[in-house]
Structure formats: structure tokens, C-alpha cells
Amino acid sequence: MSDTEWLSEDEREAWLALVSIMFRLPGAVETQLRSEEDMSLAEYLVLAMLSEASDHRHRMSELAAATNTSQSRLSRIVARMEKAGLVTREGRLDDRRVVIAEITDAGIERIQQAAPAHVRHVREIVFDRLSSEQVGQLVEIGRALNRGPAEDVATGLRSIA
Questions:
Q1: No. of helices (H) and no. of strands (E), the chain
Q2: In a domain, 154, yes or no
Q3: How many folded domains does the chain comprise?
Q4: 3-state SS assignment for residue 84
Q5: DSSP string, 43-69
Q6: CATH code, domain carrying 97
Q7: What would the mean pLDDT of 145-160 be, rounded to a whole number?
Q8: pTM metric for this prediction
């Protein structure tokens, strides 16, 4: 225990601020999406990631990483969205282990409907409180903290081609 390098006062303050953000922001975002758009943050992120892809498709494994959820949880979420007609899933012919999710026209319409209120809320609770310099710092901090085994999450989704 004597080998422990304790946090400095600045590090402790930064850590407590980060912990507060980790607990408060997801709940605030989830509450807005559920109350105003009747969807979860994970559902919103799935639709957003698929709508932003050039071909509106992604591997399920990449969607799980990008939405910070397990593949089994994502599979349940996408199954519900598939029943609602928002996405489709299909296996790749050349590799049956790969499942591709694709957004439907109804899914695109749904994300276009939900995005304005969501973006307004995110702007209000995050970006309106930061200077442009702080936004740049936040990007760098996020990249630094996301480096490691899950680095491909921080660098974005790979192409499914």
C-alpha cells in the first residue's frame, strides 16, 4: 500500500469532475430522449450511426462498440427496432459470422424527427457551457481516454466493404 501514488489535489478534482459527468450526463440525455422521443440513447445512437454511414449499413459488432453496449444487448435493441420497421439485419454471404444492420426509410425518418430536439438538449447541457477552446480540449481528452483495446471506437466505425 505504500507504493500507491496518490492523486494530487488537481488530479483528485479532475477525477471527481469526470465521475460526476459520467453519472449525470447519460441520465440527462436518456431522460430527454425517452420523454420527448420515446427512445433510448442506445436506440438513438444505432439510428444515428446507420444514418450517417454512406451506405446506411454497419456490422453489428461495430455498432456495439460505437454505442458502448454488449453485442447481446445490441442484438435485443436491434431486434425491437427491426420489429418496428426501423432497421433490417442480414448475414453476409461470404462470412456468416458477420451480421449487417441497415437503416430503413422509416428509420431515417425517425432519426430526422428525433435529432433536432436531441441536438438542442446536448447543446444546452454541454456545448453552450464550453468555449471553442474547451470543445477542442474535450476532443483531445476523449481521444486520450479512449486509446487502448477499444481504440477503434474512438477512431470511428470501419467500413463493412
A1: 7, 3
A2: no
A3: 1
A4: coil
A5: HHHHHHHHHHSTTSEEEHHHHHHHTT-
A6: 1.10.10.10
A7: 55
A8: 0.83
